[in-house]
Amino acid sequence: PGKPTPGPSHTLTQAEQRLADFLAGGGTLANFAHLRSLSRNTVRNQLRSIFTKLGVNRQADLVRVLLHSKR
Q1: Which of 10, 27, 38, 39 is deepest in the core (most CB within 10 A)?
Q2: How far is CA 30 from the centre of its chain?
Q3: Backbone angles phi, psi at 56, to 5 degrees
Q4: Residues 6+ apart with CB under 8 A from 22
Q5: Secondary structure string (H, E, C) spanning the chain
Q6: Which residues contact 63 (CB under 8 A, 6 or more apart)?
Q7: Looking at residue 31, what is its pLDDT?
Q8: CB atoms within 10 A of CB 43
């Protein structure tokens, strides 16, 4: 498994951080899965883990948290 990355989202693995950044940039789960050669279930599991770690319930909330943390 990936190591945690530094910064506001330090609890995310590298894989989770890549997904979070991709979604914050307007990407979709399906596109991320395709680009990374991952199953959609794997990506959904990563997203659920991100939600739990950051205390959000929706992708829109995730993007808001990520954009706010980069200020």
Answers
A1: 38
A2: 13
A3: -120, 165
A4: 31, 32
A5: CCCECCCCCCCCEHHHHHHHHHHHCCCCHHHHHHHHCCCHHHHHHHHHHHHHHHCCCCHHHHHHHHHHHCC
A6: 23, 24
A7: 98
A8: 22
Give the tens place of pLDDT for each residue, 3-56.
544 444 568 999 999 999 999 999 999 999 999 999 999 999 999 999 999 999
CA 29 centroid distance within chain: 10
Bridge partners (DSSP) of residue 4 are 13
pTM: 0.80
Structure-token pair, residue 53: 């770690």
